[in-house]
Amino acid sequence: MLATALHFSHSLLKETVQPGNHVVDATMGNGNDTELLAELVGKTGKVYAFDIQEQALRNTQDRLTKRQLPSRVKLILDGHEHLGNYLETTEEIHAAIFNLGYLPKSDKQVITLPATTQQALDTLLQHLAHRGRIIIVAYYGHPGGEEELTTVRDYCSKLPQKEYNVLNYQFINQQNQPPILFCIEKK
Ligand code: SAH
């Protein structure tokens, strides 16, 4: 079967991330992507994981501890729009992932927002390594979701072809607004 956006996002990360790389989970949530990234970067790599909800950090910390992965992960209680404050000026990022929307089974009012998502993308592009990838999985069935989706789609489609490959992956005949994936790859 064709992969869901979520599964495809993991395939895109696995193809790209190598041991020792520095990577970003821009929306930690329940820590699913953080865990995968921590495995992929190995002992010598580094994962910067962001969320603005303490619950997300607690859930992710528990998950990493069970897998003995915490030392390579920096859990950051701050918005991804402040990413630049945590990176060295010349630090290269090989992959980043966003899950846009709200955290399932949590406060549905706490959602990612167009302006701050865009700010984080701007910063990531400045740090993106050759062949590095930024993956955005946009859930948009909630109030405000469509607006954010439009912002992300416009942002991605305007990136210069000379510098980036940009992919859009979505099922076009499904009910209930399944998530839509974008991938920006630096040429
Ligand atoms: N809808 C997705 C999960 C999205 S989780 C799914 O179903 O799997 C989105 C996460 O982003 C939430 O945990 C939320 O707290 C977090 N978030 C919201 N704004 C943020 C910001 N500015 N920076 C970092 N994380 C943010």
Question: Which tags fit this structure?
Answer:
33% helix; 7 strands; alpha/beta; 7-stranded mixed sheet; 5 helices; single chain; binds S-adenosyl-L-homocysteine; 187 residues; 25% strand
Structural summary, described in words:
It is a single chain. This protein has 187 residues and is α/β, with parallel strands linked by helices. Helices cover 33% and strands 25% of the residues. The chain has 5 helices and 7 strands, in the order αβαβαββαβαββ. It has helices at residues 5-16, 32-41, 54-66, 114-127, 145-157, and strands at residues 22-25, 46-51, 73-77, 93-100, 128-138, 164-169, 180-186. It has a 7-stranded mixed β-sheet, with helices on both faces. Helix 4 (114-127) packs parallel to helix 5. The longest helix is centred in the middle third of the chain and has 14 residues, at 114-127. The chain is globular and about 40 Å long. The chain starts with a helix and ends with a strand. The mean pLDDT is 96.
